[in-house]
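A favour, since you know our structure tokens better than I do. It will help me judge whether the discrete encoding reads sensibly. The space below this message is yours for that.
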Amino acid sequence: HLATSLPLPSERDHLRPRIDLIAFMIDIKSKYSLKNVEASLAHVDASFFLGKVCFLVTGVGRVNYCSVEMNAIWKLGEVYCSPVLFCELELEGIRVATAQRLLRMLQICAGHIPGVSALSFGSLMRNSDD
């Protein structure tokens, strides 16, 4: 399911499926995109930051058109203890690999991978970024 911002409308709460993973998308060419993510973060329960949130940064192949400071993005990952993934949506191979990575993260967060919890996976992701 996609949402342009948080909080989600409450009138359909009873129909909404369980949320296992939140991927915040940041378009590196849009300062508004980063501001929208930052505003939405206030509406996420603190327990989600234990392995169930990631930041997906798009447009990384166009650093010449970058409007968002990379330090601001890295800081989000640090402050919220969440992995930062980079993707160029215009390149099919990278798009497919990113989709597969997100799907695997979702499987882990939903509890479909025995022996791996969202918390332990999140910890592994942060350590592998170094």
